[in-house]
From TrEMBL:
It is a single-pass membrane protein. It is found in: Endoplasmic reticulum membrane. It is an enzyme of class 2 (transferase). This is dolichyl-phosphate beta-glucosyltransferase. Belongs to the glycosyltransferase 2 family. It comes from Streptomyces sp. SID12501. SUPFAM superfamilies: Nucleotide-diphospho-sugar transferases (SSF53448).
Length: 279
């Protein structure tokens, strides 16, 4: 993934994580589509990592099959469930300059991916999120999920003074050095992970870039809305206490804007140790 140009200069790179749990029936098609899209149109070196969250079906076999067929796909297996756990594991050990994730159903239009990561690669922003609640977003989903999403984000604005519009959209990216600074302070390993990351970023003065997305809700989604909502409320209470006691202040890396054009190779500091991927 850490490719160099003819002068031996390493290019800026992105690692995209696809967290999965019992998704054997859709994994090959979704990752195949993502890989084909990035190979055809993404101008930076990339890696796709399938993170299997302790699946009990044939997901791990499907993931390892993909690593044999597609050159930019890797897979890692975790023994416990949790989207946040999977992202912490892969992002913390990534050698890429920017780390991202998207849901396996590819509900978000892939045309939004370059606009998502470009401000991070250029050094303009620290965190980037897709937003289904942006006024220019194009979203197709049922009234129940729309109500829950808007209500949750309204609670975040009221209770935690959130200035971002959509905490739970499964389409995010962050500078790797920034994530390493925040990761030890993110306690949640499940769905509240996203909110905790964004609240910590905001409280520490990091710049959050938002991209309006094209979104078509997955009717096969198995997220337990009620249980997730209760977990999120408990997480909000914990974050509120942390804010009141000042425990959210963290030393974070400064932004260093890239001076040359975004597509040009950049001198990058030595990468972190490589993660051993199972295959």
């Amino acid at each position: 993934m850490n490719e160099t140009n003819a002068r031996g200069v390493r290019q800026r790179s992105v690692e995209i994580v696809v967290p999965v749990y019992n998704e054997a029936h859709v994994l090959a098609d979704s990752v195949g589509r993502l890989h084909a899209y990035l190979e055809a149109s993404f101008p930076f070196p990339f890696r796709i990592t399938v993170a299997d969250n302790a699946s009990t079906d044939a997901t791990w076999q499907a993931a390892t099959d993909l690593t044999l067929r597609l050159p930019h796909v890797h897979a890692v297996h975790l023994d416990a469930k949790g989207r946040g756990r999977a992202l912490k594991h892969v992002w913390s050990n990534s050698t890429a300059d920017v780390v991202a994730y998207m849901d396996v159903d590819l509900s978000t239009g892939l045309a939004g991916f370059l606009p998502l990561v470009a401000p991070l690669l250029s050094g303009h922003s620290d965190v980037a999120i897709g937003s289904r609640l942006h006024r220019q977003a194009d979203v197709v989903r049922g009234p129940k999920r729309e109500f829950v999403s808007r209500s949750y984000n309204a609670l975040l604005k009221l209770g935690l003074a959130a200035r971002f519009s959509d905490a739970q959209c499964g389409f995010k990216a962050v500078r790797t050095d920034v994530f390493r600074a925040l990761a030890p302070h993110i306690e949640d390993n499940a769905w509240f992970f996203d909110t905790e990351l964004l609240v910590l970023a905001q409280r520490n003065g990091l710049r959050i870039h938002e991209v309006p997305v094209d979104w078509v809700d997955d009717p096969d989604s198995r997220v337990d809305i009620v249980r997730t909502a209760l977990d999120d409320l408990r997480g909000m209470r914990r974050m509120l206490r942390a804010g009141l006691t000042g425990r959210s202040r963290i030393p974070v890396p400064h932004r260093v804007p890239v001076q040359s054009p975004i597509g040009a190779p950049q001198h990058i500091s030595s990468p972190a140790p490589s993660l051993e991927y199972a295959s």
